[in-house]
Amino acid sequence: MVRRLCWAFSRISVPVTLVILSDRISGELPAGTHVHMLSFQSRNRWQRIRRYELHSRLLDTLIADKGVKPSLVVSHLHYAHQVTARSSLSLEAWYCLHSDPARELLGKKRGLARLKKGRSVRRLYNGKKVMGVSNGIVDSLERFFSVKPASKVAIHNPIEIETIRSLAKAEVDDCLPREYVVFVGRLEQRSKRFDRLLSAYRYSALRMPMVIVGEGGDKSFIESMIHRLELGGRVILLGHRDNPYPFMWRAKALLLSSDYEGFSLVLAEALACGTPVVSTDCPSGPSEILAGGLSNYLVPLDDGRQLGSALRRVVENPPDIPEDIVDDFDSERVAKRYLSLEES
């Protein structure tokens, strides 16, 4: 997402400095992006305990050495938030959350562990400028943690609409069925809920197969679920593909069965391909993408039969997907929303 923003800012001639709090970088960045690798490795237990503070000192040294005050600062992901909150950028930075904090940070914690995590989250975000990639994320932070941010905003994740539509037309080497429904994403049971996905597909009673595009640590669990539900030969585990868009574009529908999402990028990408989608109405993301008549394909959590029914319905009577339905997620429009924070 950050890489897409860098490219969008480059196209509208906005200079970007990217500080990466590790020694790893992936993907190509536009020429002119100022990149600083600022990793920190703990050498002992004392440093491990104080890693956020010690890392923030490196960040402050970098800022002082550059001698330039940034006009807009956005900090992404929890580790970076912890470091930024201890730095000289603490109060001017926007803290961008990418997933539902109630699910991601609390999980199944109970009792004292839950109380302690709640206190630490309030200390981190109270009085700060909070951004979410969906409105649901910001609402969750306030509702479950009683956080009182100094400012709050939701700015959806960017997508490269024309790039997606161009890549979707690419030829594929895989021998795909003529008709199929598709899931695209990590093979991760905790959030994606493959038990619900496969049960819904079975309830749909569709004759066409389901193609699953993605890799992850729960592949063996998914294979066992396929066997248990007697779906062998009907569910195709395709694995990771660098370009997933042809599989979306050719599909009759895309199905999402998540317990929680941040923004649910795959829904916006599928709609950009003109592919109908069916999704659980999880707390953040899908309801902000599936607007108007497409909200008919949002299904309550833990209703596998209704999810399967909606999948069959969307395949048999596919809705019209307006070409401009994802225009608000265009990367340059999203970049300009970031710039409006600087102006305010």
Cα radius of gyration in angstroms: 21 Å
Shape: globular
How would you write the strand order of the largest sheet? 9-8-7-10-11-12
State the low-pLDDT regions, or none: none
Helix percent band? 40-55%
The separation of the N and C termini measures: 23 Å
What features would you describe in this structure?
Helix content is 43%, strand content 13%. The protein is built from 16 helices and 12 strands. The strands form 3 sheets. It has a 6-stranded parallel sheet with strand order 9-8-7-10-11-12, with helices on both faces. A 4-stranded parallel sheet has the order 3-4-5-6. Strands 1-2 form a two-stranded parallel ribbon. The longest helix has 16 residues, at 51-66. The mean pLDDT is 94.
Furnish the topology, listing elements before pairings.
Blueprint: H1 2-11, E1 17-20, E2 34-37, H2 45-49, H3 51-66, E3 74-76, H4 78-85, E4 94-97, H5 101-106, H6 111-125, E5 129-132, H7 135-145, E6 151-154, H8 161-168, E7 181-184, H9 189-192, H10 194-204, E8 210-213, H11 219-228, E9 235-239, H12 245-250, E10 253-256, H13 265-272, E11 277-280, H14 286-289, E12 298-299, H15 304-316, H16 331-343
Parallel strand pairs: 1-2, 3-4, 4-5, 5-6, 7-8, 7-10, 8-9, 10-11, 11-12
